[in-house]
Each structure stands twice: as C-alpha cells, then as structure tokens.
Amino acid sequence: MPYIVFALKWRPNNFDEIVGQEHVTTTLKNAILKGRLANAYLFSGPRGVGKTSTARIFAKSLNCKNGPSVEPCQSCHSCIEITQARSLDVIEIDGASNRGIDEVRVLRENVKFAPVSGKFKVYIIDEVHMLTTEAFNALLKTLEEPPAFVKFIFATTQPHKVPPTILSRCQHLGFRRIPLMKIIEQLGKIVSKEKLNIGEDVLFAVAKASDGSLRDAEALLDQLVSFSKDKVSAQDVISVLGIVQQEVLFDITDRIINKDSKGALEVLNNIIDAGKDAGLFLTNLIEHFRNLMVAKVSHGDISLMDLPEDICRGLSEQTQAFSLEEIFSSFNLLVSAQEMAKRLHSLRIPLEISIIRLAHNKIKPDNPLPARPPKLNKESSKENASGEKPVSEEDIKEDDRGGDKEEAASGLSLDDIKERWQDIVGNLSKIKMSVATYLNEGNPVSLEANTLTVSFPKNYSLHKESLEGKENKLIVEKAVAEALKVNLRLSFVLSAEEAPKDRGEASPLLKSILDTFNARTIKRE
C-alpha cells in the first residue's frame, strides 16, 4: 500500500475534527440545521488552516444520504466518494489554472445539469482571486441566481483581490491562523496514533515553524520522521529546519540583562557559524521581546501568550529584570536593525551593533542571572535597555513640581561639564536626534548652584526655543543627570555673537557612526 503523508492521512472528515476554526464550523452547522443555506460562500484565510477541507466536509454534509446533516455518516456512497475526491457532484476547480472566461462559460453550461447521485451539485473553486476580470463578470449572473441544487464555495488566501460584485453575492467566512497550542495538541494526537517517539520540545519547534498553518506543521513533522531513524530529537529539528532554539533566545537575553556584551556576541557568532539565518534569528529575537511584553502586561497569563507553560514561566522570570519601557525600547532597537540592514545589504553588522547596545546600556542587576532557568531578583535595575526611554506625562508633571529631586552640584565644575558635553550630546542622539542636534549648537557657559546655563549664538534662536519646550527640556536634563550623576536645572540663553556659516563639525549622528566604525571624515580640496 502506498505511503500517505500526514497532511492527507489526518485530514479532517467532519466539522468536529477541524482545528481552530470553531467560529466557521458553528456558522455552517447552524445554517444546515436551520435550512438557511446561501447560494455561495467565500472562505478566506492563510494557507493550510482548513479552507478546502471545510468546503469538502460542508459538501459531504449536504449530500449525505441522511443529509443535509451536521454529522455526515461517512459510510454512504456519497460520503465515501467525496472523501476520496472522486464524486461527480462535487467539482473542485483550481482558479489559478482555470482562470479564463472560456472555462467559466463551460461552468455556466454545466450548472444546468442536475446532480448525479447527491442532493446538491457543489463547485469548490480554490484560489478564486486568480480568475480574470472577464471570468468574474461572466460568473456574476449564475452566482446570484444559480439552480436550487447548486452551491458555490470559493477559497482564497487574498480576499482583497476578489471583486466587490462577487463578495456581495457570497457569505464571507474568515479563517484564522491556528493557535500554537492547538497545533501542538493536534501534532500530539498524530504522534500518539502513529506510535512515534517524539518529545514536546520537538512538537513546539515544529508548531512554531509552521506559522499558524496546520498543514505546514504536519508536513514538517512528516519530514522529520523521514529524516530520523528511531527518535526525533530537538537537534534533528534544528538540522532539518534551520531554526533557532528557544533556549538560545533565553540565553542571549540573560546575557543582555547581565550586561555581558562579549557573551551576547559569542551566542550570535555561534548561531551564524552554525549556518543559521541571521534574519530568522533577528525575527525570533524580536518575537521573544514581544513575548516578554505580553508576559509583563499579563503577569504571566498563559492564555494570552499561546506558549507552553515552561516557556511562559521562563518569560515571566525574565520580565522581572525589565521595565515595560525597556522592553519597548529593546523591541524598537531590534526593528531598527532590520531597517538598517536593508540600506547596508548586510544584517550581521546592524545585528551586532543592536545586541551590543542592548547589553551595554542595560544596568547590571544586583544579583546577575544564573544559567537557565533564570531566577531573577525583583530589585533588578530599571534603567533603559537601549537608551531610548520615552518621556511620559508623569515625568513631565514630576518635573513641574521641582525641587524634590535636586541635589547640590558638589564637586562638579564647569570644566567637568564641558569635558563631558559631547558625550551627553552623543547619548541624546540615541534618544531623540532632533534634541541632540539642537543641543550640539550650544555651549555650557556657567554653573551656579544647581542651574547650568547653555548659550547659543544669536542666530540659533530656534534651537533655544525648541529646547525650552517642556518635554525636550526634560529629556536634556535627564541625559545630563545620567551622565554627571547630579540633577541640574538647565537655562538656555542667546549670546551676542552669531555662529559662522560653516563650523566644520560633525553632527551627533555622524560622530556616533564615525566612532562606531573607527572612521574619520576626509575633506575634499
């Protein structure tokens, strides 16, 4: 007997076996029970989530000898033929290869003929969005007023390409990506019935790689079983699929928390040396910080994270070392690395820069994280993970109260501030480039008590006014406080002199880039 792949062998045969689409199956069941059957249905959604399988089950329910019934008998002549895809009353058409007006004209002629043995003649057109405009137009009249024994079921992954005139004549049912845990559960049933030696970690990796498609997950499982001899291990999954282990994501995040820049780079280097796709790793790391965000907000609610319990527990432990703002900033920094990679045509450099920035700017907690599983100290530092902490309304209100956090600038001189000035401007460029650009044109001129006065050339009044805005001023004062370890009030003034038209100085952004790559500018003669 020829081998049957899992995706076909374990294809659902009734509504109850369809995974993760309860909203669709409930609608179709009620339509059958109440006798409220539409002329045409449009099933839309991602690939491999059950659209065509549902269409066949619906056709089987209509044509069963006991039907229309929500539970086809599976044993009558009609049910068997539909299951084996050889029923003359259920016509499946590939919209990609039968997309012209001539094919639709043939269909229009054939719908006039009564079903051979069943109660209904069902046309299932897959990837219906591939039909030409002329073909759609030719189908309109038949679709609106078909014979009573004809039902149309259209399936598509791109419903936005279906003309509104067609959509208005169909009952539209949207299929969803299947939740990760439901895919794992279904794979577990297959593994159990096939008597395979496969662990939960493998099922998780396969389900995660399938991106919500049960068919893809079943195909990957089939591939792994063929690849391995006796037992499918997590290493087999990595070898075949080229995916990044969940433990690696936890490991590199632990090193970021512990301010271990070298260790984080070593993890990244090992991944790339092992032949893993750096782009896939970055995507997985972004998803990991997304999971940290959900875990932080939901306080570890497993139902919101759609992940196995042990991974949810690990995420909850890691969130204790981050504030929500730090997670947002880390997420944004990693997304920026993707954008930078498009301009550099290389992902490794921006990825390395981002990871170093994450690890460098994260203040080391009092009790560093041990090896996985992490046990974090709740008093871990809440400093910004990427230096990009947004300013909240509470911060601004707190700044308005004034005086509560001021400390004497003891031991701090104006020369000390001038020496650190470009460092302050450079740090600001990572937080808000416009503020750094404005501040770069000013010079600290006096320090009295807790007030630092910054002077701008008189033709730079716009810079002064912009920095005097409440939010911008607060950003600058926080940057100064972090750099000098002293809270200072800032005062911005205009000098009597104008700035020369060409200062020949690098902007904070350019200076940061030059410093990163140990480069210098060359002046053309």
Whole-angstrom Rg: 32 Å
CATH class of the largest domain, named Alpha Beta
Count of alpha/pi helices: 24
**Which residue ranges are poorly predicted, with pLDDT under 50 across at least 5 consecutive positions?**
363-408, 502-510
What helical percentage do the residues reach? 40-55%
Global structural class: alpha/beta
Q: What integer is the average pLDDT?
A: 80
Question: Beta-sheet strand percentage?
Answer: 5-15%
Please state the overall shape, judged from the principal axes of the Cα atoms. Answer: elongated
Q: Strand tally, please?
A: 10
N-to-C span:
81 Å
What number of domains? 4
CATH superfamily of the largest domain: P-loop containing nucleotide triphosphate hydrolases
Biggest sheet, strands in spatial order? 2-3-4-1-5
Polypeptide structure, described:
The chain is of the alpha/beta class and 525 residues long. It has 4 domains: 169 residues, Rossmann fold (3-Layer(aba) Sandwich); 62 residues, Helicase, Ruva Protein, domain 3, CATH 1.10.8.60; 116 residues, Zinc Finger, Delta Prime, domain 3 (Up-down Bundle), CATH 1.20.272; 122 residues, DnaA, N-terminal domain (GMP Synthetase, Chain A, domain 3). Helix content is 52%, strand content 9%. The protein is built from 24 helices and 10 strands. The strands form 3 sheets. The protein has a 5-stranded parallel sheet with strand order 2-3-4-1-5, with helices on one face. Strands 8-9-10 form a 3-stranded mixed sheet. A hairpin with a 2-residue loop joins strand 8 and strand 9. Helix 3 runs antiparallel to helix 4 and helix 14 runs antiparallel to helix 17. The protein is elongated and about 95 Å long. About 10% of the residues have low confidence.
